[in-house]
Specification:
By secondary structure, the chain is of the alpha/beta class. 25% of the residues lie in helices and 31% in strands. Helix 2 (165-180) runs antiparallel to helix 3 and helix 7 (362-371) packs parallel to helix 8 (390-399). Bound molecules: S-adenosyl-L-homocysteine (SAH). Residues 3-61 form the TRAM domain.
Length: 453
């Protein structure tokens, strides 16, 4: 028998926040997750779901509010799954993100090392350079929106306060134009319809704007008129692409791109370097914080100009080019072919010739490089959420660089991977969290590890 049942109403104390931004309460040793509740608060809840180990509850009333509770400025904050922390003061968010990093390092990596204050934004709104917005049909009306938390139910969105205004406007204009041309929304359940998502990507420094229409079908009826209408209303657009994704899948982009107008890429700048970006390529979404993140990675790499450096999971080669200006040679590896093409192009555009790029899985390419006699002094890694493959870590240890800089968007897998390295001769020196995604529960970290003599 559990201490609480579904539909129970009770008052609880919130003592923590999960990595997804939900409040954590304990009732007779049983854990309840309460979205929208903050640490230190006493809240009235109703239990919505119970599992053996833990359950979920909905916030009904805040009985004693945290000093960090603020009014969320976005009108759909409580429905939309995009942000989780708009009800939390920004200072509070930064503190809490640091606490979470300290806790994960300790719990999952047995590390007790200096963790700096989270590097935050002075203006933490309107920071995103990329919008990816799903579409639906609602009673014959084409609606753009975001998913509710843990669901594919779309909440209508007219503006998104963490999105650059230009992307916001672009998405609404494209919606209007598609609606005027009676382009039907894709329906996940029936597999019918045309428009799945609209992506808008804005070059923060270049001012270039790319629009990608992600469709179920290859054909869009009236596509030439649609493109002309978009351009009439958005003269800043430099690229309109169609991406076809015919599959029943949660993955947003399909494999084929078709150019409808302008260029196949847009450009942007970070730290004085120019980058070419394709629809499929990963590019950090917060340009202001990206400079701080890469700056920290570069600081931790401590290059003097003589080093051989590996940049693993290099994307379009952003960190690689930052490093290359201060190193003898940089080797970048990335699994997405379009990204590596962009990376090569970016080296050319920036006239940087001391980089070599390879396309493939880092865990396959690194052993090859080792065989080829490449001997890095420093390895920088920036893997996706699941972290590094163990075989990759193993090769890294065999290569024995004197320093490893680990950039991560998931401190849990980072702590796990760094524990592997720490058990094999690397000391974790310090960690800096960087807030790349204000008002969401995500936190990015940069860690510095040094080979023990
Ligand atoms: N350092 C880059 C990209 C980081 S995102 C930047 O800051 O822009 C992580 C990247 O790892 C993505 O580009 C993804 O395509 C790539 N990736 C994912 N799994 C990989 C693997 N097994 N080997 C190499 N790259 C991988």
């Amino acid at each position: 028998m559990l201490p609480v049942q579904k539909n129970d109403r009770l008052d609880v104390h919130i003592h923590d926040l999960t990595h997804e931004g939900a409040g954590v309460a304990r009732v007779d040793g049983y854990t309840l997750f309460v979205p929208n509740a903050l640490p230190g608060e006493t809240v009235e809840i109703v239990v919505t779901k119970t599992n053996k180990q833990y359950g979920f509850a909905r916030l009904i009333d805040v009985k004693q509010a945290s000093a960090d509770r603020v009014e969320p400025p976005c009108p759909i904050f409580y429905q939309c799954g995009g942000c989780q922390l708009q009800h939390f003061s920004y200072d509070g968010q930064l503190r809490q993100k640091r606490d979470r990093v300290v806790d994960a390092l300790k719990r999952l990596g047995q590390f007790d090392v200096p963790v700096h204050e989270t590097i935050g934004m002075s203006e933490p709104w309107r920071y995103r350079n990329k919008a990816q917005v799903p579409f639906k049909d609602e009673g014959g009306r084409l609606v753009a929106g975001f998913y509710r938390p843990r669901s594919h139910d779309i909440v209508e969105m007219k503006e998104c306060l963490i999105q650059d205004e230009r992307n916001d406007v672009a998405v609404q204009v494209v919606r209007d134009v598609l609606a005027a041309h009676n382009v039907p929304a894709y329906d996940e359940k029936t597999g019918r319809g045309v428009i799945r998502h609209v992506m808008a990507r804005y070059g923060y420094h270049s001012g270039e704007l790319m629009i990608v229409l992600i469709t179920k079908t290859t054909k869009i009826k009236g596509v030439n008129e649609i493109v002309a209408d978009i351009l009439k209303r958005l003269p800043d657009v430099t690229s309109i692409m169609q991406n076809v994704n015919p599959d029943k899948t949660n993955v947003i982009l399909g494999s084929t791109n078709k150019l409808l107008y302008g260029h196949e890429t847009i450009e942007d700048k970070i730290g004085g370097l120019t980058f070419t970006i394709s629809p499929h390529s990963f590019f950090q979404v917060n340009p202001v914080q990206t400079e701080k993140l890469y700056g920290k990675a570069l600081e931790y790499a401590q290059l003097t100009g003589t080093e051989q450096v590996v940049d693993a999971y290099c994307g379009i080669g952003t960190i690689s080019l930052f490093l290359a200006r201060k190193a003898a040679h940089v080797y970048g590896v990335e699994v997405v072919p379009e990204a590596i093409e962009d990376a090569k192009q970016n080296a050319l555009v920036n006239e940087i010739d001391n980089v070599t790029y390879a396309c493939g899985a880092a865990e396959d390419v690194l052993p090859q490089w080792k065989k080829d006699g490449i001997n890095p002094d420093v390895i920088v890694v920036d893997p996706p959420r699941k972290g590094c493959a163990e075989s990759f870590l193993e090769t890294m240890v065999e290569m024995a660089p004197k320093r490893i800089v680990y950039v991560s968007c998931n401190v849990a897998t980072q702590a796990r991977d760094m524990r592997y390295l720490a058990d094999r001769g690397y000391k974790l020196v310090e960690v800096t969290p960087v807030d790349m995604f204000p008002h969401t529960a995500h936190v990015e970290t940069v860690a510095w590890m040094e080979k023990v003599k």
